[in-house]
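Practice problem: UDP-glucose 4-epimerase
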Amino acid sequence: MSPSKQTILVTGGCGYIGSHTVLRLLESGYKVIVVDNLSNSSYESLRRVHKLYAITAAASPSAQFEDAALPVETLIPFYQVDILDRPGLVKVFENHPEISSVIHFAGRKAVGESGRIPLDYYNVNISGTVNLLQVMEDFHVRKIVFSSSATVYGNPPSIPIPETSPIVTVMSPYGRTKVFLEHILKDLCVASVTKQQQYLEDRAKNTDGTNGAEVERNYEWSVMLLRYFNPAGAHPSGIMGEDCKGTPNNLMPFLSQVAVGKLERLAVFGNDYPTEDGTCIRDYLHVVDLAQGHVAALEKLDQEQAAGNYGCKAYNLGTGTGYSVFDMVKAFSKAVGTELPYNVTDRRPGDVPNLTSDPRLANKELNWKAEKTLDEMCADLWRWQRNNPDGYAVSPSIPHPI
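Answer key — structure tokens:
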């Protein structure tokens, strides 16, 4: 199925990664519907998507971008719905029978917070996702790209980390929700094969009640697990980026708020790790590259389905290059043009020395590769933060609520 004929439901589509992915989907010819409860995001992000899509259309006039003239609420139908709200999700699918696939971002994501309120994380991330999957099954939409995380690898035995590295459960409640959901999705795929086989057997025996008259059904699921490493950066325009609520949990948004004076200094959690400079190493991935990874995942699922292949597969999305905390402080200070203050404090529970991806499987099978450099990542993040020191600090009206 070509992108121009597909409609993708994006849960959590107003968030940082979600909004960048919505833009990339539109630019790639897909139609998009967004579901988000706005608990940790802003509808303003979709207004920015709309603006950037119009800029793309103006620069590349073609029939593909004719819809750029539509108002935002028409171009990107939006529903303020929580994934725990089953009737709300049902209404979305009832209103849009054209939905062919889902990209699932919605969920809680702060490691530290998950240790304080684990039941909330298990409820939202696991119960909410199961709720979504059940509604998808009811409406015969059995193709999903799931936002997983490199946190499923825990403290890996080797670096760089391949997809075959052991998956662990000794981690934060947030990390465990990702592990559990990966298992749930794999189990769903296995069960769907059995269901399809039984259906075909019944159909061959004419015990399915149709006497072979109906079009053959397909109950099999297609699932892509995308294990992100460390998303960072912002759209190069400076129009769209990460809108943190409260004190950021991650290094780069924290540094950016130090740069605009909203926070005094960065706390470096430990400098006694077994790394070259003693600080933790992570694989930082530009959010625009990550968004393109989701488009590549959808295209791969379509190719596999066309070949009669279904099931569940995991891919690392990263650069394959690790940078320490001090490396990132230096790189972002260079982008800002001044040395950013920091102090070294105690290690943070749960941090591991090194999480660097082996992205070769995604490079080969998804035909995807991270293209943007560390300097571009830092420059784009600084442009966003400098232009939007308070993020999406507006209270726009929200169209199309249900």
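Discussion: Residues 86 and 328 are 42 Å apart (CA to CA). Students who identified this feature from the tokens alone can consider the problem solved.
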